[in-house]
Design the sequence.
């Protein structure tokens, strides 16, 4: 079966797959707020210690809510300070377990869900991971903080891509490479990837991402119609075929770009 045929019947072939649960992620409405150059770097006057208690409480809550077991994920999640990745007007709620607007109709994801998605990637030392949807750079920072993977991340909004690149470099994450592009097409130059994580929701599985996933690789992606809750899927590639696992209901901003729109039109009967 070719990839295009596979994606057409995706909704049907996983009816009997393993089902588990993850916390649903509420989705706030888009706002005109944007990260500016002044917020694309850590504020020298900002005392990280004032957030330490809230940060620790969030870490403990996320571990409990998602039953996080992987010690490397817990360590990385604990090391990344979320307030460095949110606009200044949201600093007072930076450590609440829900998404926050970062401008351009995008959000920084719910922290507990970020930890959960990182864990189910099952990353191992020396692997390459591709993230689709850099946003403010929070998920990329947690992946990089693992310390044993190379992270490639794509953001379609030019301003967000630039700001995230500046911030991640300033925080010392030399193992992250940022690209401004349509993530639907992946990053063929560095493929294949041992793991791919998508932080926006298309209404179907992008074939280029399947093609760029290495044998025995994992792909974690929310799939569903825009404006509604979607399903978080974990795919495992074995013998050039995908085995899918329904990980429960989530809510993400929609996947945007010409790639997903044109591919959806091609699949219309």
Sequence:
């Amino acid at each position: 079966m070719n990839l295009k045929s596979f994606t057409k019947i995706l909704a049907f072939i996983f009816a009997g797959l393993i089902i588990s649960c993850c916390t649903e992620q509420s989705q706030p409405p888009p706002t005109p707020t944007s990260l500016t150059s002044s917020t694309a770097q850590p504020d020298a006057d900002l005392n990280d210690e004032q957030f330490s208690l809230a940060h620790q409480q969030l870490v403990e809550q996320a571990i409990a809510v998602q039953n996080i077991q992987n010690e490397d994920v817990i360590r990385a999640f604990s090391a990344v300070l979320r307030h460095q990745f949110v606009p200044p007007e949201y600093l007072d709620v930076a450590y609440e377990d829900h998404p926050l607007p970062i401008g351009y109709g995008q959000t920084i994801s719910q922290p507990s869900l970020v930890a959960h998605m990182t864990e189910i990637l099952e990353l191992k030392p020396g692997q390459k991971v591709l993230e689709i949807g850099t946003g403010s750079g929070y998920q990329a920072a947690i992946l990089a903080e693992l310390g044993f993977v190379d992270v490639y991340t794509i953001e379609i909004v030019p301003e967000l891509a630039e700001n995230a690149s500046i911030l991640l470099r300033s925080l010392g994450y030399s193992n992250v490479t940022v690209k401004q592009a349509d993530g639907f097409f992946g990053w063929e130059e560095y493929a294949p990837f041992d793991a791919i994580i998508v932080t926006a929701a298309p209404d179907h599985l992008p074939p280029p991402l399947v093609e760029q996933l290495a044998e025995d690789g994992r792909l974690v992606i929310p799939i569903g119609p825009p404006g509604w809750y979607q399903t978080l899927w974990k795919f495992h590639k074995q013998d050039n075929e995908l085995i899918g696992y329904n990980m429960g209901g989530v809510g993400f901003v929609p996947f945007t770009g010409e790639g997903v729109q044109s591919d959806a039109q091609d699949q219309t009967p």
Observations:
- The first strand starts at residue 100 and ends at 103.
- The beta strands are 100-103, 106-108, 127-132, 149-155, 176-180, 193-198, 213-223, 230-238, 241-250.
- The chain has one domain: 3-267.
